[in-house]
Amino acid sequence: MIQLNLSSGETLPLLSSPGRKFRGQRIPGSSLYKAERTGYTIFIHQFTHPLYAITLRHFSFLEQNRVIITERNDWLRLEVVLSGSLSILPKDGTKTALLTGQYQLTSLPLFASDYDPGQSVLYFTVHFSPELLAGIGSDQSFAPAAPRPVPHDLLNMVYDILKCPFREGIRNFYYANRVRELLFSHLASIPMVLPGELNAQQVAAMYEADRIMAGNLDGRITIPELARMLGTNFVTLKRNYEKVFGIGIFPRMMQRKMEHIQLLLEKTNKPLKEIGDLAGYQTLPGFINAFRKRFKVTPKEWRKERRGF
């Protein structure tokens, strides 16, 4: 577990909190730690394994503060900012910032992070143990990498972890594979070229839209509502999203929803009614008709085919 201190030296105590009562994005199967006082709220979701650790960290401050973050080890870690901006000030070095939609590889064990009034940041991390890196068998060196745009496939893997439907046992195996795939995606990725006519803030807003959409596959957030949440309009959101991700926002929303439905059908025994509810369909016939329209078979038939019945 990380240690948090204000620049004044005051410790921000992280206390265990009941995860079942938490509402919002989380890592399924993780432990939840919380620090909350007047002026700040911090949530840390942590899934720990001897060879790796996965965390989802949410910092929110009402007043200007500098937080000193001490990591629990000097393992190589991947950090992906999902919302907000993470400022990074090493003990000896130059201050940098990770914006929404950017990531880095680092082994920095200690750094300061500045927060303006009303600022919050949500970021995802994976710590890779030396044993895990040695066991991968790649001739590539796993060196720290400076902030850069996160590849779309790597970002989708992060979202897959955050909505993992599996129970303990198979879930642990799933995470172990995903952790290695994240490293492969980093090594194999081609540097992204973002649209030059959009500034950094506009690009970050599209990644924020993508995060909100990925976390709300039940369809209860419409595209116009999403535009209002981001302080823009429907037309601008649609145009800029397609420039950044190369696909329209509505087709991407439907693609994500159907991919998650297919995962639940193939890999879980959840009843069709429950899967339809999770996907935001008000009735079972409505869910079946939407699935059949897209894939030319019913969900029940698709499940049987994928399981080899």
Helices and strands in order:
Blueprint lengths: L2 E4 L8 E3 L13 E7 L2 E10 L2 E10 L3 E6 L5 E8 L1 E6 L5 E4 L2 E5 L3 E6 L4 E9 L1 H7 L8 E5 L2 H11 L7 H19 L11 H15 L8 H7 L4 H12 L3 H19 L4 H7 L5 H12 L3 H8 L3
Antiparallel strand pairs: 1-6, 2-3, 3-4, 4-5, 5-12, 6-11, 7-10, 7-12, 8-9, 8-11, 10-13
Descriptive overview:
The mean pLDDT is 91. The protein has two domains: 186 residues, Jelly Rolls (Sandwich), CATH 2.60.120.10; 107 residues, Orthogonal Bundle (Arc Repressor Mutant, subunit A), CATH 1.10.10.60. An eight-stranded antiparallel sheet has the order 2-3-4-5-12-7-10-13. A five-stranded antiparallel sheet has the order 1-6-11-8-9. The N and C termini lie far apart (45 Å). Helix 5 crosses helix 6. A hairpin with a 5-residue loop joins strand 8 and strand 9. It is globular, with a radius of gyration of 20 Å. It contains ten helices and 13 strands. It has 309 residues and is α+β, with helices and mostly antiparallel strands.
**Morphology call:** globular
How much beta, percentage-wise? 25-35%
Rg, Cα atoms, Å: 20 Å
CATH architecture of the largest domain: Sandwich
Number of helices: 10
List how many beta strands DSSP finds.
13
Structural class: alpha+beta
Helix content: 25-40%
Please give the largest β-sheet. Answer: 8 strands, antiparallel
- Poorly predicted runs are none
Keywords:
309 residues, alpha+beta, Arc Repressor Mutant, subunit A, 2 domains, globular, eight-stranded antiparallel beta sheet, 27% strand, five-stranded antiparallel beta sheet
